[in-house]
Amino acid sequence: MRKENLYVIKIGGNIIDDEGRLAAFIASFAGLKGKKVLVHGGGKLATKLAADLQVPQQMIDGRRITDAETLRIITMVYAGLINKTIVAALQKHGANAVGLSGADGDLIRSVKRTHASIDYGFVGDVKKVNGPFLSGLLKGDMTVVVAPVTHNGEGLLLNTNADTIAQEIASEMAQEYAVNLIYSFEKKGVLTDVSNEDSLIPLLTMSLYQQYRREEKIFAGMIPKLDNAFAAIAMGVDKVTIGMAEELEALTEGRTGTILTYE
Fold first, then answer.
1. What's the predicted TM-score (pTM) here?
2. pLDDT digits over 139-157, tens only?
3. What residues contact residue 19 under an 8 Å CB cut-off, 6+ apart?
4. What are the strands of the beta sheet with 157-159, ordered from one edge?
5. What letter does residue 78 receive in the DSSP assignment?
6. What domains are there in the chain, each with its CATH number?
7. CA end-to-end distance (rounded Å), the chain
8. 101-112: buried (b, 16+ CB within 10 Å) or exposed (e) per residue?
């Protein structure tokens, strides 16, 4: 028996920061037929609020060090304002949405990250996704919007990477659904030259990815995203695509962006 299709789509922070682009993306996302989960980050709003509140921010390799005050800000912004703004916009377009953090319904359990030399603070690494709970919502024709705040089961909230959350949700739901995982952001896909959209890689295999990393044609922030993408494929996700948020329909159909495969 063929599995039912499920879209798991991650929307990048640069789109969230742009009101017009976000509105266009939400309209396209709401129009997708079938079951769907949207995972979002936080964009620059948390950083701006932290500055307004005079809470110092520290980033290491693009990762936010999350102290107690920063965790409060992130929870307010990510699981509050951004999540509910997206939910309200989806309702406007006829998509009956519910917005969740990882703590809601015990959706995502994480553990506080430990590192030999870096104290990341209240940052979580995903350990378990509550597939039956999420599936129940999807079967009730709910569009699920997930904020990148998880919990450890002992009352502690944790700031968690949204790309990783999308991968973990897609991997868990691949047991029940034919999952199409899409990382949508401001670029056309994976580029060998970030300043040149014509350098798009339409099909990226694991061996080619490793070659480009050695040649330093793929580096910095794209590496964690691609590591997550290939991890999803290894866990049984049917299709993974990376591309431009404004081209969402074409991304779902494989007509644009970068398609990833192990072969």
1. 0.95
2. 999 999 999 999 999 999 9
3. none
4. 124-129, 108-112, 149-151, 157-159
5. I
6. 4-261 (3.40.1160.10)
7. 25
8. bbbbeebbbbee
